[in-house]
Structure formats: structure tokens, C-alpha cells
Amino acid sequence: MSDTFRLLRAALPQASKTAYKKASRRLLKLRLDLTGADEAERVRAERHLRGREQYARLKRADAVVVSFGKSGRTWLRVMVSRLYQQVYGLPENIMIGFDNFHNLDRRIPRIFFTHDNYIEDYTGNTDTKADFYDKRVVLLMRDPRDVAVSQFFQWKFRMRPEKKALNDYPPHDDDCEIFDFVRHEGGGMPKIMRFMNLWAREMDRIRALELVRYEDMRSDPHEVLHRLAKFLDVPATEAHIADAVEYASYDNMKKMEAGEGFRMSGGRMTPRDAANPDSYKVRRAKVGGYRDYFDDAQVKAVDAMLDDLLDPVYDYGTKAASDT
């Protein structure tokens, strides 16, 4: 079977789902326009619709990758995609989605990648992760200080105005400084740590869970990918893992984003402004990079916020760092 035919076979179902999703959202907007819904009603209705869509995928998924936005999910996806490409002879440069790889080879599981920010609006399970209890979950976490800084640049240079309203970020025309954003309840560390703390409380209730830290991916990507391959039952060799790590290196991903080298990734892997390095999806990939944006007093403030509020299971506190 030629690569072109296989790409079409994988792309057509996804295209039909995307068309259906866009039509559903247009119909919702029309209904809300006709009923004169206010902004709060529109946000609730849109979040409920997205939650219903995502819950349907969750129920069909063989495995789930959960992360807060800007925690390294794209990097992980590229490595996992490369593993499947090698093991099952798939075309290169395809980014794994929910079931596009499964449609090419039924041995590959349906993997649902989610930031887990809408499902509760549909199910009502706001204080538990009951929706995930019976699933095989990869939980990808990153230091919330670095996540919050990366979220700032996502908000400033990549995020659409309606997405900002939908997820309680500062408004589109807000002249928010980075330190204020990092402390913002809707877009910064408080929200990120609430997300992380709820998952920390619920970890033991998940049927099968593999916790992956972004920092461990940076320090030893081979070991992390080994664990992921075992958890996802990918029959990968040492050579496959070494190749996937090299393929997903920072320099190569940056090059592929600049050259639009990822097929079937939608707009996820394209810069908003090729002349602005902060508008790229692959931006800095630096551990502890938040310190570069704050003075000493501000660093102490965000460190204290983390020590006071974040569950220690993730090992991100300043005491943990001083003990290593």
C-alpha cells in the first residue's frame, strides 16, 4: 500500500470528524444568537459541547495522555509517533491523533490526548477524576512555574481571543505583564496547581497510571520513552527508542515546525509569526527557565507560592531541589 493511499486512509476519517465538529459549533453559536444568550451562557454552552465531544473520545480510548497545556505533550507525541512509525512501518512525519494510527494498523491503540479542561463541564465530576478511573493513563506533568511562563507566551502570541474567554485567561486586549499573568487565577500558577493537586489526590484510583515528568524527559529521554513503550505495550527495540529520541530532539522539532514538517497536525505545529521566536509551539524547552523572566524578589514569590500550594508528590518544591 503506497504512503499516499495510507495517508488518505488516515486523514479522511479525521477530516469528517473535524467538519462535524465545526458544524456543531456553528449550530450552537446560531442557537445562542437566536436566544440572545449572554457571554456567561455562551461560555457554559461551548464548554459543555466540548466536554461532550471529549468524553465520547475518552470512552472509546485504549489509552489516555493527560497534561496541562505547555507541559511537553507535543514533544511526547512526536516521540511516540516515531516509535509507531518504525515498529509498524507507517509513513514519516505523521503526528499521532486519537485514532489515525489505529486506522492504519489495528494493533496501535486509540490514544486520547487531553488537557482535561472540558470533560467535567459535561459529566459534572469536578472534584474527582471518576471519568478516568477505568482507563490506562499517562499523566504528564511539568514544573508549574515553567508552565505558567510558557502559558503567558501562548496567551500573548498564539491563543485565539475566544479561547481566552472560554478558559478564563486574561482578556485578549489585556496589557498583562508576565509576573501578573503567572499569579493570575485563571491562566497562571494557581489554576495549574489546582489541576495538578486534584490529579495527585486521585492517582491511586486510576486503573493503570504512569506519571511522567517533563524534567525527566529532558534529563533522560531514553529511560522515559522506555517506560512509555512498556506502559503502552509498544514492542520497541533499543534502536527504535534511540531513533525516536533523536527525531524528537529540540533542534529537529524546531526545524520541522519552521518548515511545516508535521503532516496531519492541523495548526498545532506552525508558528503564528515566523519572525517571532516566542510565537512558535516549540519555544525554549528549558527546565527552570522561569527564572530568566523575574527579578530575585519575584522568583522568591513564585517559589513560595509553589511550596505553599503544590502537592509534594511531584517533587517540585524548593526544599526538594535543595536536597538533590
Give a topology summary:
Layout (H helix, E strand, L loop, with lengths): L2 H33 L3 H22 L2 E5 L5 H16 L11 H5 L6 E4 L4 H5 L12 E6 L2 H14 L3 H6 L11 H5 L6 H14 L5 E6 H6 L1 H11 L6 H10 L2 H9 L37 H14 L8 H6 L1
Parallel strand pairs: 1-2, 1-3, 3-4
What does this structure look like?
The chain has a single domain (3-323), classed as P-loop containing nucleotide triphosphate hydrolases (Rossmann fold). 54% of the residues lie in helices and 6% in strands. The protein has helices spanning 3-35, 39-60, 73-88, 100-104, 119-123, 144-157, 161-166, 178-182, 189-202, 214-219, 221-231, 238-247, 250-258, 296-309, 318-323, and strands at residues 63-67, 111-114, 136-141, 208-213. A four-stranded parallel β-sheet has the order 2-1-3-4, with helices on both faces. The longest helix has 33 residues, at 3-35. 35% of the residues are buried.
Offer a quick outline of the entry.
The protein is built from 15 helices and four strands. The chain is an alpha/beta fold and 324 residues long.
Level-2 CATH architecture: 3-Layer(aba) Sandwich
Quote the average pLDDT. Answer: 88
Number of domains: 1
CATH class: Alpha Beta
The low-confidence parts are none
C-alpha-based Rg, rounded: 20 Å
CATH homologous superfamily classification: P-loop containing nucleotide triphosphate hydrolases
Sheet with the most strands? Answer: 4 strands, parallel
Overall number of strands: 4
- The ordered H/E elements are HHEHHEHEHHHHEHHHHHH
Q: Quickly give the structural class.
A: alpha/beta
The CATH topology annotation reads as Rossmann fold
Strand order in space, largest sheet? 2-1-3-4
